[in-house]
Amino acid sequence: MSDEDELLRIEGIRKTFPGVVALDGVDFDLRRGEVHVLLGENGAGKSTLIKMLSGAYHPDGGRVLVDGEEVRIRGAQDAERLGIATIYQEFNLVPDLTVAENVFLGRQPRRFGMVDRKRMEADAAVLLERVGLDVSPRARVRELGVARLQMVEIAKALSLDACVLIMDEPTAVLTTEEVEKLFAIVRRLREDGVGIVFITHHLEEIAALGDRVTVIRDGQSVGQVPASTPEEELVRLMVGRSIEQQYPRRRPDAGEALLAVEGLTRDGVFHDVSFEVRAGEVVGIAGLVGAGRTEVVRAVFGADPYDKGAVKVSGTPVPRHDVNAAMTAGVGLVPEDRKGQGLVLDASVEENLGLVTLRGATRGGFVDLKGQRANAARVAEQLGVRMAGLGQSVRTLSGGNQQKVVIGKWLLADTKVLILDEPTRGIDVGAKVEIYELINELTAAGAAVLMISSDLPEVLGMSDRVIVMAQGRIAGELPAAEATQDAVMALAVSTPHTTTTGTEATGGR
Ligand SMILES: Nc1ncnc2c1ncn2[C@@H]1O[C@H](COP(=O)(O)OP(=O)(O)OP(=O)(O)O)[C@@H](O)[C@H]1O
Ligand SMILES: [Mg+2]
């Protein structure tokens, strides 16, 4: 490597927040035309590190060099000038503006003092073509799904002519097909000489896409290895120990049916969905994105209405479209969109963990604050939530630690039927196993667990039965012993409401 190939160098970066040393001496470097993966547990400091490069945070110590020269990145404009573009874990687009307006936000081409919409839309169209996005530059961002939002973010980065592109867990919310598309774009950018910083918790993506890996543990860089390093070795570097069993399934004998869903139908969304989940059982729901899985569990939880059918808990019907009734019956839901639905971001960890139990406690007339604190501390410890203390606001937790709080909230609520929608999205490999252990504890205590996951190995590894949905219907059900990846995928791409069976092969994970 010649010096000319080095785009960026970070030396001994430090950053402290009240009560937390987020970065404690991190070294990192990025070359032209490489994908450099940042790997580390939830709360290790990955997002904080890249925020130093985008100008969102300022280091307390250490140096950042761009093209061999020490720089100070005071804000977004400095980063832009230096050719550094960042795609955050949470997107930064303005929902009510169009795609073109978002791409050129603050830099719209002007003509006679007015925004030149024609040119802006034409320029945007070229960029959208480059990232292979088939939407109109005039489409409102609000109407796009996550995969497309991400493509818009990439188009925006391209418009800035960035030589450094930083992506914070871009694949966390994508399907297999979308991931492939993203990889193709990233590879093309790499060929063009762009340096890419890539954060992911999906280890299999590292060998597929990466060139080098820097591992961060507790705010320190603990190693730099080639992307071809075996996964077990990467895990050991990352969590400081090896993980014996990725899917530790232990189950009691199944008991009575705690949850019964009978002929649930919402016109145009899902149709005649029936299944049971017994005490001590984990039932997985697999299917492609858009199969109607999230819609069904939201209806079961009372968050959305349904047109026909019934939901029963321990044989007693639960009123339709009534979250309070569902919660009183002992049903809990860990939603897919944790920031939107699962958390009160400006409240503390303790308050968030107590949200469900508090409801019960105040109804009785008083709040047992001491008990609440002790319980919150126990669950936070069990889940290994990395935080300065129970009083820290959830907004400032790392992405994965926020997810742990959402799950912890329901663990505290003595839930009988726990519904998990993509529970381990954004969770590191070590913490995933902790969550699986908690699922084991819940079932051992006689709870019923219903789990949606697009991570097929996870569904297969943890479920006792797998229900496969396709096009809003149940396409089939497989006991654990018969639930192979191929068998699930065959059902997932089938057309359950007609007699013909589809053989079209599309991906989903
Ligand atoms: N604004 C802030 N105020 C206080 N603490 C913060 C702030 N931002 C980050 N932290 C803390 O810094 C640590 C590192 O967080 P960071 O978001 O960088 O982790 P991460 O490696 O990106 O984790 P994840 O994989 O979960 O996204 C965490 O303990 C987090 O709570
Ligand atoms: Mg992060």
From TrEMBL:
<dbReference type="InterPro" id="IPR003593">
    <property type="entry name" value="AAA+_ATPase"/>
</dbReference>
<dbReference type="InterPro" id="IPR050107">
    <property type="entry name" value="ABC_carbohydrate_import_ATPase"/>
</dbReference>
<feature type="domain" description="ABC transporter">
    <location>
        <begin position="249"/>
        <end position="496"/>
    </location>
</feature>
<keyword id="KW-0067">ATP-binding</keyword>
<keyword id="KW-0547">Nucleotide-binding</keyword>
<dbReference type="Pfam" id="PF00005">
    <property type="entry name" value="ABC_tran"/>
</dbReference>
<keyword id="KW-0677">Repeat</keyword>
<keyword id="KW-0813">Transport</keyword>
<dbReference type="GO" id="GO:0005524">
    <property type="term" value="F:ATP binding"/>
</dbReference>
<dbReference type="InterPro" id="IPR027417">
    <property type="entry name" value="P-loop_NTPase"/>
</dbReference>
<feature type="domain" description="ABC transporter">
    <location>
        <begin position="8"/>
        <end position="243"/>
    </location>
</feature>
<dbReference type="InterPro" id="IPR003439">
    <property type="entry name" value="ABC_transporter-like_ATP-bd"/>
</dbReference>
<dbReference type="InterPro" id="IPR017871">
    <property type="entry name" value="ABC_transporter-like_CS"/>
</dbReference>
<protein>
    <submittedName>
        <fullName>Sugar ABC transporter ATP-binding protein</fullName>
    </submittedName>
</protein>
